[in-house]
Amino acid sequence: MVDLKSQYKKIKTEVDAAILQVIDAAQFIGGPEVNSFQQELEAYLGAKHVIPCANGTDALQIAMMALGLKPGDEVITPSFTYVATTEVIALLGLTPVFVDVDPKTFCIDVSKIEAAITPKTKLIVPVHLYGQSADMDPIMEIAKKHNLFVVEDNAQAIGCDYTHRDGTKSKTGTIGTIGTTSFFPSKNLGCYGDGGAMFTNDSELAVILKQVANHGQTIKYHHERVGCNSRLDNLQAAVLRIKLRSLDDYCNARRKVADFYDENLSKLKGITVPYRAENSRHVFHQYTMLLDGIDRDKLAEHLASKNIPSMIYYPIPAHKQKMFAAFNCESQDLPVTDWLTGRVLSLPIHTEMEQEQLDYIYSAIKEFIEA
């Protein structure tokens, strides 16, 4: 699904030198690479504050901790997402309130949010799924109307531009109260281990986020609040600095692959290619097609027989996961979510794909459908 080895070969000289420099300096936690990466990512995103941390799940947890949410507070979020988005809600003793997603964008259905709000609601967590932005303007209007926080789960969409109603643009993750992301190796901006970050334009909140990520302290041994230990290490920051310079190129390479898939797969009966919202410049962390009248498992088996990987993101939505049984949400009516889990299939998409590979994948799919 991702060819990290070929990507590495293109930047090998820079990466190797940067890693050796960190090792030679023997500064592994904190240090100049982390500080420089933080500043460079702030400039790229147009965010006032970037707070690096150990991984994307930590970023979500720290964001919710920093907002001062209390056990029993309700958090509105889609069920059609990776479990990290939702497990931190339960981990902190909060109550997940699942809403359905838009059948075209796969992101949270804005029209369903207000009906889910109660006096206990404190937070909305939209997910920019597969690399496309949720519709942030109306989400922020709802949040303002009901005095709610917004934490954007931007793990799959870093680099995506959202166009506001007034024509201005913002990078996803910089619109809500806090944005979070993951630097897991397969992400559009991935390191060579685990890593994550939070973004905010609120300077007071940035201080709290930094404290929570560092044992609740600003001054060593002076712990002002309950925190955790979540740090991006210097080696990963060195890699991320190099890859950040190519992030827009990486996103454009993914779009080029998506363009090929769109043009060709749209000709095949039973396949719906990903929708691209006008106000979101999709960065295609995943290329996810919808199947209608096609046996998904058999198609996946056919592709596998030809050494072509495919994945289902995500076969079991959060509201049907055993881990959330205590919230009695299994019977919740989320028809679009349930419909999607039975029909989505993701194809390989990454920065190093060659035309020969794309032709081979398309031919394999065409062969199966027309058999």
Topology:
Layout: H1 4-25, H2 32-45, E1 49-53, H3 56-66, E2 74-78, H4 83-91, E3 95-99, H5 113-116, E4 121-124, H6 136-146, E5 149-153, E6 161-163, E7 169-171, E8 178-182, E9 196-200, H7 203-213, E10 217-219, E11 222-223, H8 234-244, H9 247-265, E12 271-272, E13 287-291, H10 296-305, H11 335-341, E14 344-347, H12 355-369
Parallel strand pairs: 2-3, 2-4, 4-5, 5-8
Antiparallel strand pairs: 1-9, 6-7, 8-9, 10-11, 12-13, 13-14
Quickly list its features.
single chain; 12 helices; Aspartate Aminotransferase, domain 1; 371 residues; Aspartate Aminotransferase, domain 2; 2 domains; alpha/beta; 7-stranded mixed beta sheet
Question: What would you note in describing this structure?
Answer:
The chain has 371 residues and is an alpha/beta fold. It is built from 12 helices and 14 strands. The protein has 2 domains: 4-99 and 106-244, 3-Layer(aba) Sandwich (Aspartate Aminotransferase, domain 2); 247-369, Aspartate Aminotransferase, domain 1, CATH 3.90.1150. Helix 3 (56-66) crosses helix 7. The chain is globular. The two termini are 25 Å apart. 43% of the residues are buried. The mean pLDDT is 97.
Shape: globular
Largest sheet, if any? Answer: 7 strands, mixed
Provide mean pLDDT, rounded: 97
Strand order of the largest sheet: 1-9-8-5-4-2-3
CATH architectural arrangement of the largest domain = 3-Layer(aba) Sandwich
Strand content: 15-25%
What are the secondary-structure elements, in order, as H or E?
HHEHEHEHEHEEEEEHEEHHEEHHEH
Q: Please give the CATH class of the largest domain.
A: Alpha Beta
Structural class: alpha/beta
Q: CATH fold name of the largest domain, please?
A: Aspartate Aminotransferase, domain 2
**Computed CA radius of gyration, to the nearest angstrom:** 21 Å
CATH homologous superfamily placement of the largest domain: Type I PLP-dependent aspartate aminotransferase-like (Major domain)
List unreliable stretches of 5+ residues: none
How many H/I helices?
A: 12
Distance between the termini: 25 Å
**What is the percent of helical residues?**
25-40%
Q: Total number of β-strand segments? A: 14
Number of domains as seen in the coordinates: 2
